Amino acid sequence: MDLPVMPPVLPMLAKSASVIPPGMQYEAKWDGFRAIVFRDGPEIEVGSRSGKPLTRYFPELVDALLRQLPGRCVLDGEIVVARGGRLDFDALLERIHPADSRVRHLAEVTPAGLIAFDLLALGDRSLMDTPQRERREALTDALRGAHDPVFTAPVTHDLEVARGWFEQFEGAGLDGVIAKPPGLPYRPGERVMVKVKHERTADCVVAGLRLHKSGPVVGSLLLGLYDDAGRLQHVGVCASFPMRRRQELMAELEPLRMADVGGHPWQEWASADAQAADRLPGGPSRWTGKKDLSWLPLRPERVLEVAYDHMQGDRFRHTAQFRRWRPDREPRQCTYAQLEEPVSYDLARVLGTG
Protein backbone atom coordinates (compact mmCIF):
# COMPACT_ATOMS: atom_id res chain seq x y z
CA MET A 1 0.00 0.00 0.00
CA ASP A 2 0.99 3.60 -0.60
CA LEU A 3 -1.58 5.85 1.08
CA PRO A 4 -1.26 9.30 2.70
CA VAL A 5 -2.35 7.65 5.96
CA MET A 6 -0.79 4.23 6.48
CA PRO A 7 -1.69 1.41 8.89
CA PRO A 8 -1.74 0.93 11.74
CA VAL A 9 -3.82 3.87 12.98
CA LEU A 10 -5.39 3.93 16.43
CA PRO A 11 -8.99 5.21 16.31
CA MET A 12 -10.03 8.46 17.93
CA LEU A 13 -11.79 7.70 21.22
CA ALA A 14 -14.45 9.19 23.49
CA LYS A 15 -14.72 10.03 27.18
CA SER A 16 -17.91 9.38 29.12
CA ALA A 17 -20.46 12.00 30.11
CA SER A 18 -23.82 11.78 31.84
CA VAL A 19 -25.67 14.19 29.51
CA ILE A 20 -25.48 14.98 25.81
CA PRO A 21 -23.50 18.24 25.42
CA PRO A 22 -24.83 21.06 23.20
CA GLY A 23 -23.19 22.46 20.09
CA MET A 24 -21.82 19.19 18.72
CA GLN A 25 -22.15 16.82 15.78
CA TYR A 26 -24.15 13.81 17.01
CA GLU A 27 -24.12 10.18 15.91
CA ALA A 28 -25.46 6.95 17.33
CA LYS A 29 -23.00 4.78 19.27
CA TRP A 30 -22.77 1.47 17.42
CA ASP A 31 -22.21 -1.81 19.26
CA GLY A 32 -19.71 -3.66 17.11
CA PHE A 33 -16.00 -3.88 16.28
CA ARG A 34 -14.29 -0.55 15.69
CA ALA A 35 -12.41 -0.72 12.40
CA ILE A 36 -10.08 1.47 10.35
CA VAL A 37 -10.34 0.48 6.65
CA PHE A 38 -7.43 1.14 4.29
CA ARG A 39 -7.98 0.75 0.55
CA ASP A 40 -5.35 1.20 -2.13
CA GLY A 41 -6.72 -0.10 -5.43
CA PRO A 42 -7.13 -3.89 -5.15
CA GLU A 43 -5.68 -3.96 -1.63
CA ILE A 44 -7.84 -3.76 1.48
CA GLU A 45 -6.71 -3.88 5.09
CA VAL A 46 -9.12 -3.70 8.03
CA GLY A 47 -7.47 -2.79 11.33
CA SER A 48 -9.03 -3.29 14.77
CA ARG A 49 -9.10 -0.81 17.63
CA SER A 50 -5.79 -2.27 18.85
CA GLY A 51 -4.27 -2.14 15.37
CA LYS A 52 -4.47 -5.89 14.74
CA PRO A 53 -5.88 -6.97 11.35
CA LEU A 54 -9.49 -8.10 11.05
CA THR A 55 -9.46 -8.54 7.28
CA ARG A 56 -9.46 -12.35 7.06
CA TYR A 57 -12.54 -12.73 9.29
CA PHE A 58 -14.91 -10.75 7.02
CA PRO A 59 -14.35 -11.86 3.41
CA GLU A 60 -17.87 -10.87 2.34
CA LEU A 61 -17.33 -7.36 3.69
CA VAL A 62 -13.96 -7.04 1.97
CA ASP A 63 -15.65 -7.90 -1.34
CA ALA A 64 -18.30 -5.23 -0.75
CA LEU A 65 -15.70 -2.62 0.21
CA LEU A 66 -13.73 -3.29 -2.96
CA ARG A 67 -16.90 -2.71 -4.99
CA GLN A 68 -18.16 0.38 -3.18
CA LEU A 69 -15.31 2.41 -1.69
CA PRO A 70 -13.30 5.02 -3.59
CA GLY A 71 -10.16 3.56 -5.15
CA ARG A 72 -7.81 5.05 -2.54
CA CYS A 73 -9.14 5.97 0.88
CA VAL A 74 -8.94 5.43 4.65
CA LEU A 75 -12.09 5.48 6.72
CA ASP A 76 -13.17 4.89 10.31
CA GLY A 77 -16.25 2.87 11.16
CA GLU A 78 -17.83 -0.04 12.97
CA ILE A 79 -18.27 -3.62 11.82
CA VAL A 80 -21.65 -4.95 12.91
CA VAL A 81 -23.87 -8.00 12.52
CA ALA A 82 -27.64 -7.55 12.47
CA ARG A 83 -30.29 -10.15 13.20
CA GLY A 84 -34.01 -9.68 13.51
CA GLY A 85 -33.85 -5.92 12.99
CA ARG A 86 -31.24 -5.23 15.68
CA LEU A 87 -27.51 -5.51 16.27
CA ASP A 88 -26.29 -8.87 17.57
CA PHE A 89 -22.90 -8.61 19.27
CA ASP A 90 -22.76 -12.31 20.20
CA ALA A 91 -23.12 -13.26 16.52
CA LEU A 92 -20.36 -10.77 15.71
CA LEU A 93 -18.05 -12.37 18.29
CA GLU A 94 -18.51 -15.73 16.62
CA ARG A 95 -17.08 -14.30 13.39
CA ILE A 96 -13.56 -14.27 14.89
CA HIS A 97 -12.61 -17.88 14.25
CA PRO A 98 -9.24 -19.47 13.42
CA ALA A 99 -10.59 -21.97 10.85
CA ASP A 100 -10.94 -20.58 7.33
CA SER A 101 -13.79 -22.99 6.53
CA ARG A 102 -15.72 -21.69 9.54
CA VAL A 103 -14.99 -18.09 8.56
CA ARG A 104 -16.42 -18.73 5.07
CA HIS A 105 -19.50 -20.45 6.49
CA LEU A 106 -20.24 -17.64 8.95
CA ALA A 107 -19.77 -15.07 6.19
CA GLU A 108 -22.81 -16.63 4.53
CA VAL A 109 -24.87 -17.32 7.67
CA THR A 110 -24.23 -14.08 9.61
CA PRO A 111 -22.88 -11.54 7.10
CA ALA A 112 -21.40 -8.35 8.51
CA GLY A 113 -21.87 -4.72 7.56
CA LEU A 114 -19.77 -1.60 7.95
CA ILE A 115 -21.12 1.64 9.40
CA ALA A 116 -18.72 4.37 8.23
CA PHE A 117 -18.54 7.57 10.29
CA ASP A 118 -15.23 9.27 9.48
CA LEU A 119 -12.85 9.73 6.56
CA LEU A 120 -9.11 9.97 7.24
CA ALA A 121 -7.76 10.07 3.70
CA LEU A 122 -9.05 10.29 0.13
CA GLY A 123 -6.89 9.85 -2.94
CA ASP A 124 -3.49 11.43 -2.23
CA ARG A 125 -4.83 13.71 0.52
CA SER A 126 -4.68 13.12 4.26
CA LEU A 127 -7.71 14.52 6.12
CA MET A 128 -6.30 13.95 9.60
CA ASP A 129 -5.92 17.70 10.26
CA THR A 130 -9.19 18.62 8.54
CA PRO A 131 -12.07 19.72 10.86
CA GLN A 132 -14.70 17.13 11.70
CA ARG A 133 -17.47 18.93 9.79
CA GLU A 134 -15.41 18.90 6.59
CA ARG A 135 -14.42 15.25 7.00
CA ARG A 136 -18.09 14.39 7.39
CA GLU A 137 -18.99 16.20 4.17
CA ALA A 138 -16.19 14.40 2.35
CA LEU A 139 -17.34 11.03 3.73
CA THR A 140 -20.92 11.65 2.59
CA ASP A 141 -19.74 12.51 -0.92
CA ALA A 142 -17.32 9.55 -1.07
CA LEU A 143 -20.00 7.02 -0.08
CA ARG A 144 -22.95 8.59 -1.87
CA GLY A 145 -23.46 5.46 -3.98
CA ALA A 146 -22.82 2.94 -1.20
CA HIS A 147 -25.49 0.44 -0.22
CA ASP A 148 -26.01 -2.60 2.02
CA PRO A 149 -23.70 -3.83 3.57
CA VAL A 150 -21.84 -0.48 3.54
CA PHE A 151 -23.60 2.41 5.25
CA THR A 152 -22.87 5.99 6.23
CA ALA A 153 -23.77 6.63 9.87
CA PRO A 154 -26.70 9.03 10.33
CA VAL A 155 -25.64 12.39 11.76
CA THR A 156 -27.41 15.44 13.20
CA HIS A 157 -26.44 18.78 14.71
CA ASP A 158 -29.82 19.10 16.45
CA LEU A 159 -29.57 18.39 20.19
CA GLU A 160 -33.24 17.43 20.46
CA VAL A 161 -32.89 14.91 17.62
CA ALA A 162 -29.84 13.44 19.38
CA ARG A 163 -31.84 13.10 22.60
CA GLY A 164 -34.54 11.28 20.64
CA TRP A 165 -31.94 8.93 19.17
CA PHE A 166 -30.63 8.23 22.66
CA GLU A 167 -34.09 7.11 23.80
CA GLN A 168 -35.18 5.23 20.67
CA PHE A 169 -32.15 3.59 19.10
CA GLU A 170 -31.35 1.34 22.06
CA GLY A 171 -34.24 -0.85 20.93
CA ALA A 172 -32.22 -1.62 17.78
CA GLY A 173 -29.19 -2.72 19.80
CA LEU A 174 -27.29 0.58 19.83
CA ASP A 175 -25.89 1.76 23.15
CA GLY A 176 -25.91 5.55 23.27
CA VAL A 177 -24.85 8.71 21.47
CA ILE A 178 -21.45 10.04 20.40
CA ALA A 179 -20.88 13.82 20.33
CA LYS A 180 -18.04 15.26 18.22
CA PRO A 181 -16.82 18.88 18.22
CA PRO A 182 -17.39 20.16 14.65
CA GLY A 183 -13.93 21.73 14.43
CA LEU A 184 -12.04 18.71 15.78
CA PRO A 185 -9.17 17.25 13.72
CA TYR A 186 -8.68 13.47 13.81
CA ARG A 187 -6.55 12.64 16.86
CA PRO A 188 -5.66 8.92 16.99
CA GLY A 189 -5.84 7.22 20.38
CA GLU A 190 -7.03 10.34 22.21
CA ARG A 191 -10.34 10.64 24.09
CA VAL A 192 -11.53 13.87 22.54
CA MET A 193 -15.11 12.91 21.65
CA VAL A 194 -17.94 12.46 24.16
CA LYS A 195 -20.01 9.30 24.66
CA VAL A 196 -23.28 9.21 26.55
CA LYS A 197 -24.51 5.73 27.39
CA HIS A 198 -27.54 4.40 29.21
CA GLU A 199 -27.11 3.58 32.87
CA ARG A 200 -29.43 1.37 34.87
CA THR A 201 -29.12 -0.45 38.16
CA ALA A 202 -29.75 -4.04 39.17
CA ASP A 203 -29.52 -6.02 42.40
CA CYS A 204 -27.22 -9.01 41.91
CA VAL A 205 -25.99 -11.91 44.00
CA VAL A 206 -22.24 -11.84 44.67
CA ALA A 207 -21.29 -15.51 44.27
CA GLY A 208 -17.54 -15.44 43.73
CA LEU A 209 -14.47 -13.36 43.13
CA ARG A 210 -11.28 -13.35 41.13
CA LEU A 211 -8.01 -12.22 42.64
CA HIS A 212 -6.21 -9.16 41.34
CA LYS A 213 -3.05 -9.73 39.33
CA SER A 214 -1.07 -7.86 41.97
CA GLY A 215 -1.82 -10.30 44.80
CA PRO A 216 -4.45 -11.55 47.29
CA VAL A 217 -6.97 -8.74 46.91
CA VAL A 218 -10.23 -8.56 44.96
CA GLY A 219 -9.78 -8.22 41.21
CA SER A 220 -13.44 -8.58 40.29
CA LEU A 221 -16.71 -9.72 41.85
CA LEU A 222 -18.72 -12.40 40.05
CA LEU A 223 -22.40 -11.48 39.74
CA GLY A 224 -25.44 -13.71 39.41
CA LEU A 225 -29.17 -13.49 38.75
CA TYR A 226 -31.76 -16.23 39.23
CA ASP A 227 -33.64 -17.40 36.14
CA ASP A 228 -37.26 -18.58 36.00
CA ALA A 229 -36.17 -22.12 36.85
CA GLY A 230 -34.44 -20.93 40.04
CA ARG A 231 -30.89 -21.43 38.72
CA LEU A 232 -28.28 -18.82 39.49
CA GLN A 233 -26.82 -17.59 36.19
CA HIS A 234 -23.50 -15.76 35.92
CA VAL A 235 -24.31 -12.40 34.32
CA GLY A 236 -21.02 -10.49 34.53
CA VAL A 237 -18.47 -8.94 36.82
CA CYS A 238 -18.00 -5.81 38.87
CA ALA A 239 -14.46 -4.42 38.84
CA SER A 240 -12.42 -1.18 38.65
CA PHE A 241 -11.78 -0.55 42.35
CA PRO A 242 -9.00 1.52 43.93
CA MET A 243 -6.38 -0.71 45.57
CA ARG A 244 -7.46 0.20 49.09
CA ARG A 245 -11.04 -0.76 48.25
CA ARG A 246 -9.84 -4.09 46.84
CA GLN A 247 -8.23 -4.85 50.18
CA GLU A 248 -11.36 -3.80 52.09
CA LEU A 249 -13.59 -5.99 49.92
CA MET A 250 -11.34 -8.98 50.50
CA ALA A 251 -11.77 -8.56 54.24
CA GLU A 252 -15.53 -7.96 53.95
CA LEU A 253 -16.09 -11.11 51.90
CA GLU A 254 -13.76 -13.42 53.83
CA PRO A 255 -16.62 -14.81 56.01
CA LEU A 256 -18.37 -15.99 52.83
CA ARG A 257 -15.37 -17.85 51.41
CA MET A 258 -15.99 -21.54 50.68
CA ALA A 259 -13.24 -24.14 50.96
CA ASP A 260 -14.13 -25.45 47.50
CA VAL A 261 -16.94 -25.30 44.94
CA GLY A 262 -18.79 -28.32 46.31
CA GLY A 263 -22.38 -27.27 46.97
CA HIS A 264 -21.99 -23.97 45.13
CA PRO A 265 -24.57 -23.15 42.39
CA TRP A 266 -21.68 -22.95 39.93
CA GLN A 267 -19.84 -26.06 41.12
CA GLU A 268 -19.88 -27.54 37.60
CA TRP A 269 -18.17 -24.50 36.06
CA ALA A 270 -15.26 -26.58 34.71
CA SER A 271 -17.60 -28.91 32.78
CA ALA A 272 -18.11 -28.15 29.09
CA ASP A 273 -21.61 -29.69 29.24
CA ALA A 274 -22.57 -27.49 32.18
CA GLN A 275 -21.17 -24.42 30.42
CA ALA A 276 -23.39 -25.21 27.44
CA ALA A 277 -26.50 -25.54 29.62
CA ASP A 278 -26.09 -22.51 31.89
CA ARG A 279 -24.18 -19.26 32.21
CA LEU A 280 -21.22 -20.09 34.46
CA PRO A 281 -17.97 -18.23 35.17
CA GLY A 282 -14.71 -19.31 33.64
CA GLY A 283 -15.94 -20.71 30.35
CA PRO A 284 -12.99 -21.11 27.95
CA SER A 285 -13.10 -19.33 24.61
CA ARG A 286 -10.76 -18.14 21.90
CA TRP A 287 -11.02 -14.69 23.50
CA THR A 288 -9.62 -15.81 26.85
CA GLY A 289 -6.91 -18.11 25.43
CA LYS A 290 -4.60 -19.24 28.23
CA LYS A 291 -5.83 -16.59 30.66
CA ASP A 292 -6.32 -17.83 34.24
CA LEU A 293 -10.10 -18.17 34.63
CA SER A 294 -10.04 -19.60 38.15
CA TRP A 295 -12.18 -17.97 40.81
CA LEU A 296 -12.92 -18.25 44.52
CA PRO A 297 -16.45 -19.38 45.44
CA LEU A 298 -18.49 -17.37 47.92
CA ARG A 299 -21.70 -18.44 49.60
CA PRO A 300 -24.36 -16.62 47.55
CA GLU A 301 -25.75 -14.66 50.49
CA ARG A 302 -24.91 -11.01 49.78
CA VAL A 303 -26.69 -8.67 47.40
CA LEU A 304 -24.95 -5.85 45.55
CA GLU A 305 -26.55 -3.03 43.59
CA VAL A 306 -24.59 -2.38 40.40
CA ALA A 307 -24.91 0.05 37.51
CA TYR A 308 -24.88 -1.29 33.95
CA ASP A 309 -25.48 0.18 30.52
CA HIS A 310 -27.34 -2.59 28.71
CA MET A 311 -27.77 -6.32 28.38
CA GLN A 312 -26.40 -8.55 25.63
CA GLY A 313 -28.77 -11.48 25.70
CA ASP A 314 -28.77 -12.75 29.28
CA ARG A 315 -25.60 -11.00 30.52
CA PHE A 316 -24.26 -7.52 31.08
CA ARG A 317 -22.64 -6.24 27.88
CA HIS A 318 -19.87 -4.41 29.78
CA THR A 319 -18.30 -4.50 33.24
CA ALA A 320 -20.82 -3.41 35.88
CA GLN A 321 -20.05 -0.66 38.39
CA PHE A 322 -20.28 -1.02 42.18
CA ARG A 323 -23.00 1.15 43.70
CA ARG A 324 -23.83 -0.18 47.20
CA TRP A 325 -24.46 -3.26 49.25
CA ARG A 326 -28.15 -4.08 49.73
CA PRO A 327 -28.55 -5.82 53.11
CA ASP A 328 -32.30 -5.24 52.79
CA ARG A 329 -32.53 -7.57 49.78
CA GLU A 330 -32.70 -11.34 49.75
CA PRO A 331 -30.57 -13.15 47.16
CA ARG A 332 -33.59 -15.01 45.77
CA GLN A 333 -35.12 -11.63 44.92
CA CYS A 334 -32.30 -11.03 42.41
CA THR A 335 -33.97 -12.21 39.22
CA TYR A 336 -34.01 -11.21 35.57
CA ALA A 337 -37.52 -9.83 36.08
CA GLN A 338 -36.11 -6.60 37.55
CA LEU A 339 -34.25 -5.69 34.34
CA GLU A 340 -35.69 -3.00 32.11
CA GLU A 341 -36.30 -3.97 28.49
CA PRO A 342 -35.82 -1.22 25.88
CA VAL A 343 -38.67 -0.60 23.47
CA SER A 344 -38.01 -2.41 20.19
CA TYR A 345 -36.81 -0.27 17.28
CA ASP A 346 -36.00 -1.48 13.76
CA LEU A 347 -32.35 -1.10 12.77
CA ALA A 348 -33.42 -0.35 9.18
CA ARG A 349 -35.06 2.84 10.43
CA VAL A 350 -31.82 3.89 12.14
CA LEU A 351 -29.92 3.45 8.88
CA GLY A 352 -32.66 5.08 6.82
CA THR A 353 -33.19 1.95 4.74
CA GLY A 354 -36.62 0.99 5.99
Automatic annotation (TrEMBL):
Q: Provide the E.C. number(s) assigned to this enzyme.
A: 6.5.1.1
Q: Which reaction does it catalyse?
A: ATP + (deoxyribonucleotide)n-3'-hydroxyl + 5'-phospho-(deoxyribonucleotide)m = (deoxyribonucleotide)n+m + AMP + diphosphate
Ranges where the ATP-dependent DNA ligase family profile domain occurs: 114-227
Ordered alphabetically, the record's keywords are:
Ligase
Looking up Gene3D superfamilies in the UniProt record yields:
DNA ligase/mRNA capping enzyme (3.30.470.30), Nucleic acid-binding proteins (2.40.50.140)
UniProt superkingdom: Bacteria
Which Pfam family would be a valid example here? DNA_ligase_A_M
The EC class name is: ligase
The protein here is known as: DNA ligase (ATP)
Could you tell me which CDD domains the record lists for this protein? Adenylation_DNA_ligase_LigC, OBF_DNA_ligase_LigC
- Please name the SUPFAM superfamilies in this protein's record: DNA ligase/mRNA capping enzyme, catalytic domain, Nucleic acid-binding proteins
**Family to which the UniProt record says this protein belongs:** Belongs to the ATP-dependent DNA ligase family.
According to the UniProt entry, the coiled-coil residues are: none
GO terms for biological process, alphabetical: DNA recombination; DNA repair
